[in-house]
């Protein structure tokens, strides 16, 4: 997954979040075609879209993109917090969330097992899980200190335990099991780190094109000049034999100097004192100088021997090494070049001989010392981290705490030449694969048994036979036991003889074994991940692990305080009468078997979660999938079998409560408030869903506490139905919200204009006093379609009409003309006149539409609104006057010769088929389609002219002039127009004079005078039109006050009823949550009892090896970090870990 860096190229964009394009399937249990190629194609397609995570049930599969993706930020953390895995996009945060919440909910230890080969992204996955847990768990002064140590331990261990390989620029060359302990509230209380299989051979001989451990290069690049000089170091890695052996010194996008400072800061954060840090740096310098000590051959009493090369460079390196390691040059030289052998003489007397070593043997002795020292430093750092994590001595009360363990260990390794280290690494991976098989299948079968569900098991490869071949006690004995026995019987011998004897014993014991074969000086094991050939040479020396007694005695005399401490740790079980001599020299094979057994016991005591990491290619190239390599990993990781196991049983399984919460919207009985049992609610849901998914009836199984759906297709259909139902709900909600927001706005406008009316003394009619604004009152579908056609013709938005209703228009003679429609949109106002369905313009004309446009004005042409102060339905719209066109506008007409045929019928123009210009469009038509006559005054045509049939009624026949309208909804009309324009005002006057058009005027030219009387009437007088308003229509003030009191009383009653309903719903929810909590506690108790029973069985069979819980002696005082800065330092650590 890459390491974030300031120098990285363009970063990929996040495809995760609430909105994204779905590529393939998120959960491969739901693949339509189950095959290795189907899995490959799904992973390949998702990788191409930067969707690197995919589920197989609860197993997360990650394909390394070899580029940084911005999908690990705080927003993404918030997106995944408190969400179920099924509700979110696949992500390592989803697995971390499920792990953490399951631990808190079930009070059970959890572990995350991250597997995959080197370079697949395991370390990055581990770090992101740690980041997430640190980000969402509780806080507090002590808690933040644990988190900070938790996070800062990673860059420290990476510096000393990671290296560049040909496959990975930041490959973990050790295994790590990190346990974080939590209290009942989910707050970190402490932790513990266990390290496995440090690749010590890399210290003295990194592979070609690879690097030694990062810390050496950081040291040379980051030390200040003065410190570098005092340690006798240079800034060139090529000056040191242990570093130049590989020919690789740098890593792309990695600044070793910056990393050095980060490592030093991390060491302080985990509690390592400054003096201790100096001693560690001094040890590292000593190891580098030790590697520059060379040897030359000499004859020692007729035997081939060696001595330290007599040249200035070697002698200087020896002196510097001795100075830093606290040793003397003569004694260290002799330890290199001579070796003590002890033999049993007759009579039981032990005789000792000092045997000279040739240059190769002396070099091996030198390298053994370097490896021992570096491994001891690494163990010391792990110890410091554990001390820092053991806040308030939490480890002794670990039984009262829940834990989350994160296992990040070597991936399976197959090289051209494989030795003892690869053998141990692949053995551990075999054990992890065995756990995966056992826990996956066992938990599956156990769940079905508990729920009373039957299923048909599928065949799979159980790799227990390979594990027994390697570690079995026999008969026949495993390879580790054969190796230990060979070393025990040939303890005084060295070289290839021991290795070849070991090979012959293996071949004899395991002859005919299906997974073992001998091939020359190699042997082959058929691992679950493929066949691996191991070179037997070097197995004996590598398995011995420890230094010789004489070298240990020399190291014991060191004046270096750190070496003294480390040596004391190593020798605590030694023979006090013989310093440096161990009572029992444990072999490397024994140690790894013991560690692995303890690890297996710890993992078996947890509920596992899996992350399977896959390398996209071997060249570390972004946006590149190597089909062959990925397919091989799919095979040996057992992804196909994993999919089959999930599908062979049930593609979906979930608690009744969880299923009810997710799908309750599918049934009317459960969609609102359901007070019954969860199982009953689920049955309602399934019954309702069967109407759309008939096959669901045979696909569902009902367990004791869970519901099971057999096929992924059925569950997919259920999910699709849920999505469609949500789509319907969304549409309803959108409509309701739009209606609510609009009505709330209109209510506010109504209140505002009521205040204006009251201020101006405007009388109100009872019919309009509390009438709600509905804005659109056109209920005739045919008329509505005709109106919308007019709006569409003018390019106006028909999706939202601000107002539409019948109105009366006051004619020039003062007559109320009833057959008009007023339409207001966001940009224009339309006055349309209803027409009879027969033409009265021209007998030859086609039937005109139901409405004819009399006036279209942009809203900006309205200058104001005038009303009378009385309770009447009249209002006057003041319109901006426009100049009259004296002659028809022909600027848009086409030239007579520009078209040879009718633009509507394609008839060719001739003597018998004449051209006619449409006065509206300006186009040329034949007489067949311009049979209608229509006045178009806004084009300068004041008398009826020919207009093409398709536009009849769509253009204005009135000039721009003030308009007087009558409507019971005049207040709403005024509010809508004022709200749309926001620049005009409403005025009130008893005498209103309209500004009329000089040509084709249709509005009254006389003054409109308003007065009160017994009845409403319009009277025409010379120069004056009197509108009499009935005084009885005006509502008295007492009525208004009484109405307000009733409204307040009703609102109070509604609020009380809502509160009572909410109380009932709350009580029901509390009962349901109580029942679910009781069920959860019952299941937790059952699970704990099962775990205890399983532990007892393992213990009685000897399978449970107790881990060493002895408290290690503290070295020096821990650095006291300021507690007040814990939270800010934690935030800084999180930011660094996210690459910000």
Number of helices: 33
Distance between the termini: 16 Å
Portion of residues in helices? 40-55%
Strand content range: 15-25%
Assembly classification: single chain
Mean pLDDT: 84
- How is the main sheet built? 8 strands, mixed
Secondary structure category: alpha+beta
- What radius of gyration results from the CA coordinates? 44 Å
List the keywords.
about 1150 residues; alpha+beta; Methane Monooxygenase Hydroxylase, Chain G, domain 1; Alpha-Beta Plaits; seven-stranded mixed sheet; disordered N terminus
Protein model, in words:
Belongs to the TRAFAC class myosin-kinesin ATPase superfamily. Myosin family. Residues 1054-1097 have a biased composition (Basic and acidic residues). By secondary structure, the protein is α+β, with helices and mostly antiparallel strands. Among the domains are: 432-545 and 586-615, Methane Monooxygenase Hydroxylase, Chain G, domain 1 (Up-down Bundle), CATH 1.20.58; 652-709 and 711-763, 2-Layer Sandwich (Alpha-Beta Plaits), CATH 3.30.70; 780-1033, no CATH class. The protein has 33 helices and 35 strands. Strands 23-22-21-20-30-25-24-31 form an eight-stranded mixed β-sheet. Strand 10 (338-344) and strand 11 (350-356) form a beta hairpin. Helix 1 (36-48) packs across helix 23 and helix 11 (274-291) runs antiparallel to helix 12. The radius of gyration is 44 Å and the shape is elongated. The two termini are 16 Å apart.
Give the gist of this structure.
By secondary structure, the chain is an alpha+beta fold. It contains 33 helices and 35 strands. Among the domains are: 432-545 and 586-615, Methane Monooxygenase Hydroxylase, Chain G, domain 1 (Up-down Bundle), CATH 1.20.58.530; 652-709 and 711-763, Alpha-Beta Plaits; 780-1033, no CATH class.
């Amino acid at each position: 997954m890459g390491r974030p860096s300031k120098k990285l190229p363009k970063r990929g964009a996040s495809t995760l979040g609430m909105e994204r394009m779905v590529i393939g399937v998120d959960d491969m249990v739901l693949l339509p075609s189950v095959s290795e190629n189907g899995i490959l194609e799904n992973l390949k397609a998702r990788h191409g879209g930067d969707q690197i995570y995919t589920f197989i049930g609860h197993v997360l599969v990650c394909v390394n993109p070899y580029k940084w993706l911005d999908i690990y930020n705080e927003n993404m953390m918030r997106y995944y917090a408190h969400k179920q895995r099924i509700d979110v996009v696949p992500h390592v945060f989803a697995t971390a969330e499920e792990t953490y919440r399951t631990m808190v909910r079930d009070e059970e230890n959890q572990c995350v097992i991250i597997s995959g080969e080197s370079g697949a992204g395991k370390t990055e996955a581990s770090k992101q899980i740690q980041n997430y847990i640190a980000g969402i768990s509780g806080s507090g002064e002590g808690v933040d200190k644990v988190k900070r140590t938790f996070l800062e331990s990673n860059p420290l261990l990476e510096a000393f335990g990671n290296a560049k390989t040909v496959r990975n620029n930041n490959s973990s060359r050790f295994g790590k099991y990190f346990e974080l302990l939590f209290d009942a509230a989910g707050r970190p209380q402490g932790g513990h780190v266990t390290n496995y299989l440090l690749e010590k051979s890399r210290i003295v001989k990194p592979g070609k094109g690879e690097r030694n451990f990062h810390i050496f290069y950081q040291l040379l690049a980051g030390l200040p000049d003065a410190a570098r000089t005092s340690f006798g170091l240079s800034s060139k890695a090529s000056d040191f034999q242990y570093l130049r052996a590989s020919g690789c010194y740098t890593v792309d996008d990695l600044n070793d100097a910056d990393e050095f400072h980060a490592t030093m800061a991390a060491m302080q954060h985990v509690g390592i004192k400054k003096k201790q840090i100096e001693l560690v740096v001094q040890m590292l310098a000593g190891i580098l100088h030790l590697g520059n000590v060379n040897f030359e051959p000499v004859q020692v009493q007729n035997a081939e021997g060696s001595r330290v090369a007599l040249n200035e460079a070697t002698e200087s390196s020896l002196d510097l090494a001795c100075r830093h390691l606290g040793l003397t040059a003569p004694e260290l030289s002799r330890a290199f070049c001579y070796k003590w052998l002890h033999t049993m003489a007759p009579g039981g007397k032990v005789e000792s001989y000092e045997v000279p070593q040739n240059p190769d043997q002396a070099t091996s002795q030198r390298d053994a010392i370097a490896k021992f020292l570096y491994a001891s430093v690494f163990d010391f750092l792990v110890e410091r981290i554990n001390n820092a994590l053991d806040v308030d001595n939490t480890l002794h009360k670990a039984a009262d705490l829940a834990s989350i363990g994160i296992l990040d260990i070597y991936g399976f390794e197959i090289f051209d030449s494989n030795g003892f280290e690869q053998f141990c690494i692949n053995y551990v991976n075999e054990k992890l694969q065995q756990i995966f098989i056992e826990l996956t299948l066992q938990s599956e079968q156990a769940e079905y048994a508990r729920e009373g569900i039957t299923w048909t098991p599928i065949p799979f490869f159980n790799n227990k036979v390979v594990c027994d071949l390697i570690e079995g006690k026999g008969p026949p004995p495993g390879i580790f036991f054969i190796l230990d026995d060979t070393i025990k019987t040939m303890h005084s011998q060295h070289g290839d003889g021991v290795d070849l004897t070991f090979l012959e014993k293996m071949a004899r014991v395991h002859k005919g074994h299906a997974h073992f074969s001998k091939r020359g000086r190699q042997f082959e094991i058929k691992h679950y991940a493929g066949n691996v050939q191991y070179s037997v040479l070097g197995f004996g020396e590598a398995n011995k692990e420890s230094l010789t007694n004489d070298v240990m005695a020399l190291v014991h005399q060191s004046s270096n305080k750190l070496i003294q401490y480390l040596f004391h740790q190593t020798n605590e079980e030694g023979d006090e009468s013989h310093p440096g001599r161990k009572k029992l020299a444990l072999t490397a094979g024994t140690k790894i078997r013991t560690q692995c057994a303890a690890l297996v016991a710890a993992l078996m005591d947890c509920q596992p979660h899996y992350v399977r990491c896959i390398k996209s290619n071997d060249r570390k190239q972004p946006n590149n999938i190597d089909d062959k390599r990925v397919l091989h990993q799919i095979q040996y990781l057992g992804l196909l079998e994993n999919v089959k196991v999930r599908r062979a049983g049930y593609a979906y399984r979930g608690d009744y409560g969880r299923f009810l919460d997710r799908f309750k919207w599918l049934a009317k009985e459960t969609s609102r408030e359901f007070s019954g049992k969860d199982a009953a609610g689920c049955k309602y849901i399934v019954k309702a869903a069967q109407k759309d998914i008939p096959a669901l009836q045979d696909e569902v199984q009902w367990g004791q506490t869970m519901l099971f759906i057999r096929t992924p297709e059925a569950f997919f259909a259920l999910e699709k139905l849920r999505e469609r139902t949500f789509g319907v709900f969304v549409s309803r909600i959108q409509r309701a919200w739009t209606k609510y927001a609009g009505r709330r706005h209109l209510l506010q406008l109504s209140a505002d204009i009521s205040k204006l009316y009251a201020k101006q003394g405007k009388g109100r009619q009872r019919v309009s006093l509390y009438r709600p604004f509905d804005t659109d009152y056109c209920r005739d579908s045919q008329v509505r379609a005709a109106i919308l056609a007019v709006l569409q013709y003018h390019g106006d938005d028909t999706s939202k009409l601000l107002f539409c209703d019948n109105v009366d228009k006051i004619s020039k003679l003062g007559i109320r003309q009833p057959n008009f429609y007023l339409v207001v949109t966001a940009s224009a106002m339309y006055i349309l006149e209803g027409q009879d369905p027969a033409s009265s313009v021209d007998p030859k004309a086609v039937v005109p539409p139901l409405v004819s446009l009399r006036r279209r004005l942009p809203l900006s042409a309205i200058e104001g609104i005038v009303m009378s102060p009385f309770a009447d339905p009249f209002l006057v719209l003041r319109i901006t006057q426009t100049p009259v066109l004296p002659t028809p506008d022909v600027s848009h007409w086409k030239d007579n010769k520009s078209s040879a045929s009718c633009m509507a019928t394609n008839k060719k123009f001739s003597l018998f088929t004449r051209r006619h210009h449409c006065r509206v469009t300006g186009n040329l038509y034949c007489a067949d389609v311009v049979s209608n006559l229509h006045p178009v005054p806004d084009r300068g045509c004041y008398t009826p002219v020919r207009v093409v049939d398709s536009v009849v009624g769509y253009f204005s026949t009135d000039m721009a002039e003030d308009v007087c309208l009558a409507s019971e909804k005049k207040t709403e009309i005024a509010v809508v127009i004022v709200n749309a324009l926001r620049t005009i005002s409403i005025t009130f006057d008893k005498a209103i004079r309209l500004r009329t058009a000089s040509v084709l005027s249709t509005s009254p030219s006389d003054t409109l005078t308003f007065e009160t009387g017994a009845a409403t009437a319009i009277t025409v007088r010379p120069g004056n039109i009197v509108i009499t308003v009935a005084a009885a229509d005006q509502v008295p003030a007492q009525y208004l006050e009484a109405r307000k009191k009733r409204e307040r009383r009703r609102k109070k009653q509604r609020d009380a009823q809502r509160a009572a309903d909410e109380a009932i719903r709350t009580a029901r929810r509390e009962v349901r949550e109580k029942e679910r909590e009781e069920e959860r506690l019952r299941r937790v108790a059952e699970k704990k009892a099962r775990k205890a029973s399983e532990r007892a069985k393992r213990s009685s069979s000897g399978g449970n090896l107790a881990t060493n819980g002895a408290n290690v002696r503290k070295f020096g005082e821990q650095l006291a970090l300021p507690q007040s800065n814990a939270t800010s330092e934690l935030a800084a650590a999180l930011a660094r870990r996210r690459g910000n």
